[in-house]
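Hello forum,

I keep getting stuck at the same step: I have a sequence, I want structure tokens, and every attempt I make locally crashes halfway through. Rather than fight my setup again tonight, could one of you with a working pipeline run this one for me? It's a single chain of 344 residues.
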Amino acid sequence: MVVVIWLIPLRRCIKEMPRASRENLFTILNFDGNIAYESIVEATDNFDSRYCIGVGGSGSVFRAELSNGQVFAVKKLNDESIQGDGSRDFKSFTNEIRSLSEVRHRNIVRLYGFCSHVRHSFIVYEYLEGGSLAQVLSHDEKSMELDWIKRVNVVKAVAKALSYMHQGSFPTIVHRDISNKNILFDQEYEPHISDFGTARLLNSNSSNWTSFAGTFGYTAREFAYTMEVNEKCDVFSFGVVVLELIMGQHPGELVASISLSSLSENQNVVLKEVLDPRLSSPGKHEAEELVLIAKIAFACLNFNPGSRPTMFQVSALLSKKMQPSNLFPDITLNQLFGLEFPTA
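Reply #2:
Ran it on my machine without issues. Output:
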């Protein structure tokens, strides 16, 4: 059953949205079915901390199980942020609704609805019980469940979702905060991109300059001084996440040396030595895919944004049938530079 939020006053949430966005929102919010405001409040015991499953800068996320057994994730805006339209948190709240109303993809968290109320403002999403990539990689047992086959599939799925956002959606959506905490898993470790509070819908008729957003360690270097939003910001962040997936931890200073194409002391390190040691050695097919994935990550981390591939190119390359090779296990990090991407 498709369900939606029962809306109290919406004018504050949508008054600055373009007509197309408003129509999309109402398409989402007027299906048959209804999640009443009171039902959400009751399911979380008035947003008691016992039901809190995550805390962010603009609000907290709660697990809400309704009386009919349906379970949802509910992001509640901080109380102090509800007071005015001009607050940064409230803008993030409306921005997330606006962005998610534009997308339909199996690897992007699903928006069910939202509510703006003087007591509580919140957004309702599908509930993903597998936790975030950050949580999985920090937990030895869970990280071992996320084997090489699953990790390769995570890379492919996230690439497809970003390709859809950048090239398959109109307007183009740039997430701006692709990181380990914003990739959520279901029970089968199928990834879903989440948290669109800082996302931007690119408008070809206006400036796409903005204030800084993102997570330290994942944000493209140039964004810190240009403040220009474009798809290549997400491409860089994707490269960091890919390396984190295959290494089992954040790649740290390796990111800076890769982006400058200067590995110095690490240039003769073989790829096999930096793979997540908690997993057994990959089989031949997985090893070949890991080499390709590492090459893609290096390309995405290029210092020059114009030299980075598009996510469409990345996804297309990942979808191609692998050609047998004997590069693994002897390929060095230095040999991962230079990868040709399909242009068609």
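The longest strand covers residues 59-65. If your local run keeps crashing, start a new thread with the error log.
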